[in-house]
Design brief:
The chain is of the alpha/beta class. It contains seven helices and seven strands.
Length: about 230
C-alpha cells in the first residue's frame, strides 16, 4: 500500500468531511495522497442504512479525490468497549501508510463517539512511534509530524486555519452526498443534522474566514506548540 500525506480519521462516514473536506480537497488538488478512516459503519444512525451510507461515502470520495478510504467496522456507540483494539489497529494503519499529518475530531463534542475517537487517535499517534509497542506488527515504528483536530459539532478558537475559499462550494457538494443525513426525507427522523446543519457548517467556515481575512476557512486545533524560525 502506498504511503499517505494526510490520514483523516473519524467515527462515522461524514465526520471527516464536516470538519476537513476543504482542506482535503486542496491537498488532493496539489497531488497529495489523502486517506480517510472511519472507525464504524454508523449502524446506529437515526437515518440511512449502512449500505446507503457506504454508497454516499464513495460518492464523497470521488469528489474529494481521496486515494483510499478505510473502515474498521468497530461498534457504533461501543468504541470504549474495544478501545485497545481500536488503538492497535490505528497504530498499524499509521505505520503502514506513514502519513505526514493525522487529523482527528476535536476532543470536546456533543457526540461521545467523536470524543472517543479523539482520545483513541491521540494515543495511537503517540504509540505508533514507540518501537516496542506492538513489536510483532509487520510495520516499523513511525510517528506523524503533526496531529491536528478538526471541528464537527463544537466550535472553539482554532490554532490554525486553512483558506478554503476557492473550494468552499466543492466542500458543500461533498457534504450533500450524504443526503440520508442532511436532508429531511419522507421516511426520515428529524435530527439536528437534517435541521439546518449544513447552514451551520457554512456559517462556521465563514466565521473562521472573516476572523482571518478570507471568505471561508476551516479551523484546526493543535495540542502542542509549533516551532517556527520566523514570523
Amino acid at each position: 500500500m502506498k504511503e499517505l500525506d494526510i490520514l483523516a480519521i473519524g467515527a462515522h462516514p461524514d465526520d471527516v468531511e464536516i470538519g476537513a473536506a476543504g482542506t482535503l480537497l486542496l491537498a488532493a488538488k496539489r497531488g497529495e495522497r489523502v486517506g480517510i478512516l472511519d472507525l464504524t459503519y454508523a449502524e446506529l444512525s437515526s437515518n440511512g442504512t449502512v449500505e446507503r451510507r457506504q454508497s454516499e461515502a464513495a460518492a464523497a470520495d470521488r469528489l474529494l479525490g481521496a486515494a483510499h478510504r478505510y473502515n474498521f467496522g468497530l461498534p457504533d456507540r461501543g468504541l470504549e468497549r474495544v478501545r485497545e483494539e481500536a488503538i492497535s489497529r490505528v497504530v498499524d494503519l499509521i505505520r503502514e501508510t506513514k502519513p505526514r499529518v493525522v487529523l482527528a475530531p476535536y476532543w470536546q463534542d456533543r457526540h461521545p463517539d467523536h470524543e472517543s475517537v479523539s482520545r483513541i487517535v491521540r494515543e495511537a499517534v503517540f504509540s505508533a512511534g514507540i518501537r516496542k509497542y506492538a513489536a510483532g506488527q509487520s510495520h516499523p515504528a513511525y510517528r506523524p509530524a503533526k496531529l491536528l483536530y478538526y471541528f464537527i459539532n463544537t466550535t472553539a478558537k482554532p490554532d490554525i486555519v486553512v483558506d478554503i475559499s476557492g473550494v468552499f462550494e466543492e466542500k458543500m457538494n461533498v457534504l450533500r452526498c450524504y443526503r440520508s443525513q442532511f436532508e429531511l426525507e419522507t421516511d426520515s427522523v428529524a435530527t439536528p443534522l437534517n435541521n439546518g446543519y449544513l447552514e451551520s457548517v457554512s456559517y462556521r467556515e465563514r466565521l473562521f474566514g472573516q476572523q482571518t481575512g478570507v471568505a471561508y476557512a476551516e479551523g484546526f486545533v493543535s495540542s502542542v506548540p509549533y516551532v517556527v524560525d520566523r514570523l
